[in-house]
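In response to the reviewer comment on reproducibility (Comment 2.3), we provide here a single inverse folding case reported in full, input and output, so that an independent group could reproduce the run without further information from us. The structure tokens appear first.
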């Protein structure tokens, strides 16, 4: 079984709907858990069973945040809502799979719209216009996927983290 999927299933059994899991390069686990099971326990007592689950899956303990519900509320920590939408980019799909998530295939509720920046000439600001437009659409609450098809001088990776 996929290590990420194994860890996710074990976490679901131990902390149902109480965690956010992401798995980075090299099996580096980023995990936030909010659970009443941590009441009156030290950091070490909280961490031990979680580390065992990570090690059993053959992954690497990374950034692990373990809170009681009260601690999470005091510090403003919340879990991400489970997103059953299809991934909107290849990177999002890779991230979902690498963290052991799957998503049902369904058609989008709205038609997909495209904005294309095109020019034969280089250096006219296509990539800059693309990123600025994507930023404004994202701020307006739109879902955005960026694709740089400039095979001679792709520039998105230089402008975006």
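Designed residues, in position order:
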């Amino acid at each position: 079984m996929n290590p990420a999927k194994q860890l996710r299933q074990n976490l679901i059994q131990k902390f149902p709907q109480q965690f956010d899991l992401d798995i980075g390069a090299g099996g580096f686990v980023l995990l936030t858990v909010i659970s009443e099971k941590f009441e009156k326990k030290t950091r070490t007592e909280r961490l031990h069973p979680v580390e065992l689950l990570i090690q059993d899956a053959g992954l690497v303990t990374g950034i692990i945040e373990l809170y009681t519900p009260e601690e999470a509320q005091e510090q403003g920590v919340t879990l991400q809502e489970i997103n059953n939408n299809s991934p909107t980019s290849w990177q999002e799909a890779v991230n979902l799979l690498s963290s052991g998530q799957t998503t049902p295939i369904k058609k989008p509720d709205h038609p997909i719209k495209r904005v294309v920046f095109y020019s034969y000439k280089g250096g006219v600001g296509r990539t800059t216009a693309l990123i600025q437009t994507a930023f404004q659409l994202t701020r307006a609450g739109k879902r955005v996927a960026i694709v740089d098809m400039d095979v001679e001088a792709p520039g998105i990776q230089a402008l975006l983290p």
